[in-house]
Amino acid sequence: MPLPPVPGRLFCFGLGFSATALAHRLASAGWHVAGTCRTAEKAAALRARGIEAHVFAPGHPLDPAALTGTTHLLDSVPPTATGDVVLAALTPEILALPDLRWVGYLSTTGVYGNQDGGWVDESAPVQPATERGQARAVAEAQWMALHDAHGLPVHRFRLPGIYGPGRSALDQMRAGTARRVDKKGQMFSRIHIHDLGSAVMASMTAPNPGAIYNVADDHPCPSPEVVAYAAQLLGVEPPPLVPFEQAALSPMATSFYGENKRIANARIKAELGVSLRYPSYREGLDDQLAAERAAGRT
């Protein structure tokens, strides 16, 4: 693995599952970490865990002074149909940051659209098929316009499904929400939250403004396979296979099955030196369960 980035000040727009995990890793390495969330209650909880948190939400603008001293900026806020909400609110303030060395935008592999199960690398055209993918493509283009016009050091990370402790097939099995939907030939890629953080940190160590990185593991597969493995680890029967046509999925869930592709990850290995701790869901789920048992939580 590459060396960790030299400590600075990371500001995360959108302290959700992914950004909060990264923030804690960097804070433990001596970084000053700050960011935004949508409610005062969550901000208070994040501050109690050592993260400088600010509320940024509709009707609650961010005081630009919160960005003072930022050297690295990460944006994981979901866009609207018109694009990125961070840029809509704070473009002049971001461009004026004197010490900004790196910007990361967490996008989605949904910008590639459907590939009928084929492999997709970063050279593939952007042709989103869903409203979510289209919004991400617009937001990516807005960030890149600032890179092209002002030299903003933007890096795009295109992500499949993100999982990890608290958000995995093990957790879904325990909650009774796991399903095995069977659609012939359907493939999904995924990435463990730890490996996502490692890829982002590697980019921070070796910036390459304008770069695009697919951040995915080595093992695209049908989702029923993952659920069955989680059930095996827990020693319970998996939920039954349900044909896609009979699954009665929500419109959002149905849209995920409209895109079938395998995400290639060679660039994060060759360019960033990333070595995946969890090359497939098996290692990720094995490790989660072992950690839970060691902590006496199972």
Automatic annotation (TrEMBL):
Presence of the UniProt keyword NAD in the record: yes
InterPro entries linked: Epimerase_deHydtase, NAD(P)-bd_dom_sf
One Pfam family in the UniProt entry: Epimerase
Signal peptide from the UniProt entry: 1-23
Keywords tagged on the record: NAD, Signal
CDD domains: SDR_a4
Residues annotated as domain NAD-dependent epimerase/dehydratase: 104-216
SUPFAM superfamilies given in the database record: NAD(P)-binding Rossmann-fold domains
PANTHER family found in the cross-reference section: EPIMERASE-RELATED
Protein name per UniProt: Nucleoside-diphosphate-sugar epimerase
Organism of provenance: Nitrospirillum iridis
